[in-house]
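Quick start: read one record
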Amino acid sequence: MNPVESFVFPDIPKTIRDALFKHDKQMIIVGVIGKSSSSSCNKLVGFNLLTTHPALTDSKCCEGRIKFYFEEDGTVLYLHFETTFDQQVMAEELAKAVETGDRDNFVNFNSYVRSRFARMLLFAIQVCHMIVLVEPTSVFDTSYLSIFKSLKIIREKYVLKFLPKLLKASNVGNYMGKEARLCSPRFIFLFEGTSDIRPEDVEKLEALECAVEEDIYKMLRTEFIITNNSAMSLFSIPRSKKFVFFSSDSKAKSDPLLDSIDMLMEYLDKPSAGQPGDKDDEKFMNRLRPYEGYGMSAWSIGRASAAIGKPERERSILALIRKHVAEAFEHGFDDSVSKYRGRSHFAVPGVKSWFEGFKFLHKIFIENPDNPNYEPGDVDYKAYLENFHKVIDIDERFFGDVCEHGMELAMVNYKEMLPHHYSGAFHEKKYHQAREVFLRYARGPEVERHEAKLKDYCDSIWLNGKQQCEYPSLRGNPCALGKHKANDPMDHSSGVVFVSACNCGRTQGHREDPYTIRQANYDFYQLIAKSCSNCTLLERIKFPVFEPSGSDFRAAEFINKNLSNLMSLENSNRTPDTSANPPMTNDHSPHLSGSQKSQDSASNLTFSIDDKEENDGQTKNYASQGDEEEALEEEPMNEIVIKVGEHTDQPDKDKAILRQPSTTEYLPGMLHATSPSGLLPQFPSWSLVCLGPSSIYTHNSGLPEHIQSGFLSGSNFLLPWDVSVRLEHAQSWAASYEKIRNRKKNAAQSKSGDSSNNFTLKIFIGIEYECLRGHRFIMSGPDTVLRGGSGIVRDSGSKVVFNDMPIYFPCLCRSSNVAQLMRVHIVTPKAPVNVILEPKVEIFQNSVQNNVTFTTGQPEPIKLTQSAYWILRLPFVYEGDNGPLVPPSEVNANNASMHGVLMAGMYGIKESEISEELI
């Protein structure tokens, strides 16, 4: 075997340069590329060409390195390419990528590896006559097909456009012709694994080679990598010669160091080791020689060859290559079908001329793309540099395409049925729906980038004229208008329309979702009163409001709310929070004397409630119904004892001097128990009207639809509250009362035994709830809705009088709306007493301990006229010092009282002046 010279491009030692270029002889260029599993990355080990194992001589392998091998008198120049497909190179690139953080996922790294290998393979196709593709296993890697197909596209679309121009301008490579390469290179596939076939089974190996050749040829033809015209193919495949070889030589995967250690151990284990004349020693020495004949005389080599008398073993990859080389020198490679034969270009230039072209092409295909600062002057060459990776990288292109497809569908999904303006919550919902569509298709490393792009796209649509104002109303609904700057809260509109009744309950109308407390609790009722035939004509109680003394007035500012609360408790008659016991008294004694009585103060009213009271005299019934009223079942009576004294015109000397309300500052919110004293709101949030005489209501039929509309069936009855009252009055008051009473009855005389001072009052109470759809109903208890039928309702009003009633309660309608306590109906009796009211609403914020108690602002309880039908309308929206208290979106009967209550003890009885009309 002739010694093989080698060098690494571009460093050529002078002696090798002289030996290679001295005669400028013609040589066939054979490229060796593919995969290797050894640490040296040298794929020529299995060729039996090298005199020394590369592991002992080669330096560390490097991606992109090209090493030349040739015999001095030979006709073949081997180019060994070290690429990213070599195992050792790939491992080093992976470690570098992990260290630097580049290519942080498998797809990107695999794309980089494929792209670098493809670039080197394209270069080899341009400069070689033959290419040996080495595979360290016995299986063909079908991933090569996508690389071959991409390189064919690149060559036809870009290389054939710029390369002939560049070759012509550089005056090198004229021998390459219009195809800009030596020829359509012939590929040989070398497999260094033979599966389970032993090296001695030559017939099986050859049969396997034929089968694999057929499979590879079919795959290449199917993908149009090779065609009938080899000039138009990326490379060529011989039809009549072998192009697949399975190597059975174990030396290709051997490690010389390990082999030497094994042989040494085997030699030391022999008992005859080191004895002279031992034939086994000669065998060991021959195995240790780096190549055959190393360290032997020429005479010894000749004698050994004569003794063997056998030709060199023909079954080797080197022998197959030599057959193809011989054909190349004799006829050239023309692997086209008969129709295209003779048209293929094949050139075998002098090695010196070829090397000049090699350097030029190396700069074009390898050096320039590695230089990030390189600016090509040729447009076609620039397009090649820009698009090479895009064409080769089918994985990234595939993942990019599926992400783009998914993104297109997601964009369409987001834009489907978009309203003119929509809220941020709706935008997020639509985005998440679009994202789900996107993720059904998107895969690979581009998902995150495209997902962010989708987010930006959706945000841009929403923010570019689609954004909703979303300013919340007092009921918590967002403004449905487009994003706008509103100088007045009433410029907003949620588009939500409710149904509400007027102050007297006769007329129902549509109302817009309020944005100000005035709009909620005052303006709507003023507006609907114009449509109501009753409201403007009814007697009403006026609530205290701010009355400015001039045009220079403003809203009050609270610097210290705690100080304001203390001032409110000390300087006003309002109390912050009261218990569920009967209120309206500052003294808990059971009776008051005549001297303590004052009709001007609610604190002078006291009553005691006795469930069982023996009455010696006859009880007279004064009720809102006549004798035609059917008697109700007996229920425990509540007795109220009232002591009546003589009237006096002198005010109580101990009465507190009330602070006059301010005429320059008004209360910006609603009145509550801790509001600063002396400040009043600009408008009333409450309403109290007299619907008419008590005869309007008939307990047999309930509230008629033409008087009170919108009530659900069976819940339009008021609840009777029977109260026993015992008057303890002065003699003059009693005489006057008896005289009038007897005259009314045409009685000549009145016996003292008949003038009993006990009265049973029948008061009708109705706690009305109204949902946002206009459904109205009466409740018979804190957790019970009144269910009346065709007969008389036999529920007692005591449950609603002496218990806290929830402000919010679930409505009976199908939509499960939340109903709100909006009205209190009171039918007063025809008796010498007045029903008095002091309503207080306690709204809880976040917890029961954090609450606000709202009041009407009246300095004393409100006195209702006798034998009349009164309706107290409560606020539609409650607003504290920190803003509106939004009603709950859902309630149930068990937790309704956790949100707010109408506090117990709002009803009371007070004596009235004797009038002939009352008897």
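The first helix runs from residue 14 to 21.
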